[in-house]
Design a protein that fits this description.
The protein is α+β, with helices and mostly antiparallel strands. The protein is built from six helices and nine strands, in the order E-E-E-H-E-E-E-H-E-H-H-E-E-H-H. Helix 1 (53-62) packs parallel to helix 2 (88-95) and helix 3 runs antiparallel to helix 4.
Length: 190
């Protein structure tokens, strides 16, 4: 399924920072945009290195007042809370809207595979989810994986929503809010 028409109603998700020694739940934030206007914020929790991110994001979006107008889900990376990998194909199918994973840099897939297969419970299944997400492609100055959206449309959306940096505003906002929720201040580059 390819996205049709101009995409204007977008939600961007990012996770809150956490200490390396942290176990348990990690906060996630979704910033909802209608064009250039912030419409709302969704918050939830996912398990550190767990397997519930896809369900948690689908539930947050699905029960929100924004669900019926939503046209695209943006993710800052395919994993939240460490190695809680998001199944972008399943998320796209459940929500019925395209999913676009955005990364500033091309990830080192060999290092990720090694870490998953040697140190993470359920690592094989998680590695398969990353592979199933498809190729990592350059697009509009960042890298993407995508479900339900073609590359040309993905590039248009990124360029339209990337106002202050190479990251689209829904992801920047989710990052800022998540950082402030956890530490009282956003300390990382956005």
């Amino acid at each position: 399924m390819a996205a049709r028409g101009r995409i204007s109603h977008v939600i961007g998700f990012d996770d809150a920072p956490f200490e390396r020694s942290h176990r348990g739940d990690v906060s996630i934030v979704g910033a909802v945009y209608a064009g250039s206007r912030l419409e709302g914020v969704l918050t939830g929790k996912v398990r550190r290195d767990g397997a519930n991110a896809t369900r948690a994001i689908a539930a947050l979006v699905g029960r929100s007042r924004f669900a019926r107008h939503l046209q695209l889900v943006m993710l800052q990376g395919i994993a939240v809370a460490g190695f809680n990998i998001i199944d972008i194909q399943a998320l796209q199918k459940v929500l019925g809207v395209p999913v676009l994973v955005i990364m500033r840099r091309r990830p080192d897939l060999r290092a990720i595979e090694h870490a998953l297969l040697t140190r993470v419970r359920g690592g094989r299944r998680k590695w398969r989810l990353i592979q199933r997400a498809g190729d990592i492609e350059p697009a509009a100055g960042v890298y993407v994986q995508r479900a339900g959206i073609n590359l040309a449309t993905a590039e248009q959306v990124i360029r339209r929503f990337a106002v202050s940096s190479d990251l689209p505003e829904p992801l920047r906002t989710a990052h800022i809010v998540a950082g402030a929720m956890e530490t009282g201040d956003c300390r990382h580059r956005v």
